[in-house]
Amino acid sequence: MSRPFIRCTFGGALCALALLAQGCGEAAHSQKVRREAQDRYDRAGAQIVYDQARQSFHSGQFEQALSHADRAIVRFPKDSSYHLLRGRILHEMMRVEDARDAFAKSAELDPKKPEPHYFMGIIHQRWREHDRAIECYAKASELDPSKLHFSAAEVEMLTLAGRHDEADARLASMERSFEFSPVVDRLHADLAKMRGDHHACASRLERAAVRETASPDLVEELAFARYSKGDHAGSLAALEDPVLEKRARRPDLARLRARNLVVLGRPSEARDVLLGLRDERDHECRTALLLGHAAWRLSDWARLRECGEELVRRRPELADGYLFLGASARAAGRMDESLAMFEQALAREPEREIAQRFVAAACDAGERPLGAPEAAAGAIRTDAP
């Protein structure tokens, strides 16, 4: 009589276990549903604050934007986009270390998001950590090959780091996807410039200009590139493009214009351009340098001497100031002073041909023997606007 009781008791236990398991499963499911509902609620609230952060960021209210972004992250810390925005805000606030940490967190939360790697690349580039920057840009480009600015940043960094063959190879792969983009032509131009191939640089920029005709930056680059390859008329034509009208009086562009005019045999026009810059700050004395060369070609000896005195006073390491003083003294018949100035020029640039000619002419005339020139004090490029 006891066996049925045992059977019933055992069966009841099984039923109880089944019911308990079912109850636990239902409880777990219910807990999961509640957690997902809470997540949706937290995300919705965080999204509202995140949208406020974006609006404040784009309007330049960075402190307010950061406050909103922090609140969004507190509400829902698992969203990679919130940390990405926080990093961008911190970067604009010059809190670069904190920005880098925010971008790293964004990449950790969503390894497939390319933007955090791109912005980390910007930071490493800023820190002159070229190899790290290249790695970050390459990762961003790998994650989203359709974004041209990711690939362009990688090539720019490879070029800057002197890894020219790698930049070439990367450009070749980019051209398959962005064949007609002026950005690719400009990247080729930068690479050619770094290699000293001014003809290839100008050629690439001219191609880019056909595709991007309204870009002042591009036309400006083209003006410098044409000058570097010796196409002075072409450089002047680029500077006269209407898209540069608002930049025409910028000192470096005005000096480039003047230099082209001098080389093209139009020193009077160059002098007029340069006189308009005399009130501009010019720590390198580039305006005085160019103005002196224009004055020399015009036989404007008084202005030539003025430029020479300024250069000797402010840039005594340059040969040009002494050349100007020597030429103006020679024009006034002060031969001893002239020879002394040309010797000073040779002491700074022994290979300066015009100084050699004047000194040799003075010696041939028997004005006084030329002693051994002193060691060069250091030459500086004088053809940069």
TL;DR?
The chain is mainly α and 385 residues long. It contains 19 helices and no strands.
Task: Name some characteristics of this structure.
Serine Threonine Protein Phosphatase 5, Tetratricopeptide repeat, 19 helices, single chain
List the helices and strands and how they pair.
Blueprint (H helix, E strand, L loop, with lengths): L1 H57 L3 H14 L4 H13 L3 H14 L5 H12 L3 H14 L4 H13 L3 H12 L6 H13 L3 H14 L4 H13 L3 H8 L11 H13 L3 H9 L10 H12 L3 H14 L5 H12 L3 H14 L4 H12 L21
Helix pairs in contact: 1-2, 2-3, 3-4, 3-5, 4-5, 5-6, 6-7, 7-8, 7-9, 8-9, 9-10, 10-11, 11-12, 12-13, 13-14, 13-15, 14-15, 15-16, 15-17, 16-17, 17-18, 18-19
Total beta-strand segments: 0
CATH architecture of one domain: Alpha Horseshoe
Residue fraction in strands:
under 5%
Helix content class: over 70%
CATH fold-type name of one domain = Serine Threonine Protein Phosphatase 5, Tetratricopeptide repeat
The CATH C-level class name of one domain:
Mainly Alpha
Shape: elongated
- Give the overall average pLDDT: 86
Please identify which CATH superfamily of one domain we are dealing with: Tetratricopeptide repeat domain
Structural class: mainly alpha
Q: Note the total helix count.
A: 19
Report the order of strands and helices: HHHHHHHHHHHHHHHHHHH
Main β-sheet: number of strands, strand sense, barrel status?
A: none
The gyration radius over C-alpha positions equals 35 Å
Distance between the termini: 114 Å
Low-confidence stretches: 367-381
